[in-house]
Write a structure and sequence with these properties.
This protein has 133 residues and is mainly α. The chain has one domain. The chain is 77% helix and 5% strand. The chain has a two-stranded antiparallel sheet. Helix 1 runs antiparallel to helix 7, helix 2 crosses helix 5 (77-88) and helix 5 (77-88) runs antiparallel to helix 6. The protein is globular, with a radius of gyration of 15 Å. The model has no long low-confidence stretch (mean pLDDT 91).
Length: 133
């Protein structure tokens, strides 16, 4: 993912947060912005003496290497990112996991998100971004 995409989503997050409406989308854009910032920081990535230029090449390769494709039980791309953040950027781990959980909740379970959760999402995005700088 390009850093510009992360910045675009962060700008949308800021706009939505400032509007005071659509807190579910504040959380969602904060999560996707964080994911893109993290992908940008992680890649290119060397794993098992192979350099991966981007997340998709890593994901396809690691899933085939571990035999997930044959077992038809691949981890989701989100889960693969969570595992990468856990091992490669542990200081961002709990913030990124929280953003993932809350954005899933906002998108699939309950779109009624409080302003406190929306503000926390933005703060966690800010922390992740600052940590990667």
């Amino acid at each position: 993912m390009k850093k510009e995409h992360a910045e675009h989503n962060e700008s949308a997050c800021d706009y939505l947060l400032q509007s005071g409406k659509y807190n579910d989308w504040v959380v969602t854009t904060a999560f996707y912005s964080a994911m893109q910032y993290l992908h940008n920081a992680l890649f290119p990535l060397e794993y098992n003496n192979i350099e991966y230029s981007n997340f998709n090449s890593y994901y396809d390769s690691i899933c085939n290497y571990k035999g997930y494709a044959m077992l038809n039980n691949r981890p989701s791309k989100h889960q693969a990112t969570i595992e990468l953040v856990h091992t490669r950027l542990p200081n961002c781990n709990r913030f990124y996991r929280w953003l993932h959980h809350e954005s899933s909740n906002a998108r699939y379970s309950n779109y009624k998100v409080t302003s406190q959760v929306a503000n926390t999402a933005k703060n966690y995005l800010t922390y992740i971004k600052a940590h990667l700088a």
